[in-house]
Amino acid sequence: MSKIEQIWYNGGIGVIPLLPLSWLFRCLIMVRHWLYQHNWLVVNHFSAPLIVVGNITVGGTGKTPFVIWLATFLRNKGYKPGIVSRGYGGVATESPQPVTTTSSPALVGDEAVLLARRCCCPMVISSKRSDAVNMLLNDFDCNIVIADDGLQHYAMGRDIEIVILDGLRRFGNGQMLPAGPLREPVSRLKSVDLCVVNGESHLSGEYGMALVQSSLYNLQTPEIRERLSLFKGKRVHAVAGIGNPERFFNLLRDADINVIPHPFPDHHVYCADDLNFDDAAVVMTEKDAVKCASFEKQNHWALSIDMAPELKAEENLSVLLKNIDRMNS
Q1: Fewest 10 Å CB contacts: which of 100, 112, 134, 219?
Q2: Element (H, E) at 74
């Protein structure tokens, strides 16, 4: 955990000199939001419903597994979903740009490639997400759009807002950036349509999201193991370049695995030396695995996880979708 994250989540007097900047940031966020609400800044609207999946804190909360679940949920409801994202971590100069299962993570970003592989639906990235939505609707057979992140991208009109919260870290010290992890005030949650907690929910209006399935697959061979018991009682090198690496490490520890943790910055670009350990197996997240294809080894494994919100969240989302369909009919 970095020094700034220690201040955000563990407290300390280091927060004091950052508070004036935090108050200024809060004022700027509120003014910007007001300008969009009152049409002083342009909001783009689209020919198909758009669902934003985002968060109000910095760092990983579990958006990616939720988006994977949501794409399947929408297909099962008869929709034809597509996904847009910023493509964070990529260096693509052409924008907007479609993403396929064979796209380079270095070009379009690791999360974009992972979503393209897991969701089996069209995907487009762009720093201007409205441009990505327009390409998706013009060039692909989609009738509903999922925006991976972009809750604060108010130029992109949306029909449903879903916020994902980290059930363990929650809102940290409750301060706005840079004194705390908040991108927007906690009061912003009052205006969203669905609040899903990565873990157990404890407050009214929140819905829990839990792990429903996990499997290990080898990066070099077709071998797949349905359970983490493959490494139970064994020593493994755990690699995670995600927003909250400790969540991944704890998942392995809970399976009675002797974890040697190797945290990397979110969206880290790996090289072979990063994984140059002893002969013990290496287990990494799927997001990390998409960037290691050129130097994968037989003892390299990736953990694939599927998560789903509780049934009540599904029911509420179904009602929201029906209301949108009724308005558009």
Answers
A1: 100
A2: helix 63-76
Q: How far apart are CA 110 and CA 119, in angstroms?
A: 14
Mark whether 97 and 74 lie in a shared domain: yes
The domain total for the chain is: 2
Spatial contact of 162 and 40, defined as CB atoms under 8 Å apart: no
Q: Is 71 left (phi over 0), alpha (psi -120 to 50) or beta?
A: alpha
254/199 Cα distance (integer angstroms): 14
pLDDT confidence of residue 93: 67
Same domain, 31 and 145: yes
- Model pTM? 0.92
| Domain housing 253 | 212-308
Q: How far is CA 6 from CA 169, 188, 231, 318, in A?
A: 11, 24, 31, 39
pLDDT at 142: 95
CA distance 324 to 244: 34
Which of these, 134, 101, 129, 127, lies nearest to 115 by C-alpha position?
101
Residues 6+ apart with CB under 8 A from 40: none
CA distances to 100, 113, 131, 253 from 94, in Å: 15, 16, 12, 42
Domain assignment present for residue 206? The answer is: no
The CATH number of residue 254's host domain is 3.40.190
Q: Is 132 in the same domain as 268?
A: no
Give the per-residue pLDDT at 88.
79
Q: Are 165 and 195 in contact (CB under 8 A)?
A: yes
Mean pLDDT by 10 residues, the chain (329 residues): 82 88 96 94 94 92 92 96 87 83 90 92 93 96 94 94 93 93 95 93 89 87 82 94 89 93 90 88 93 89 92 96 87
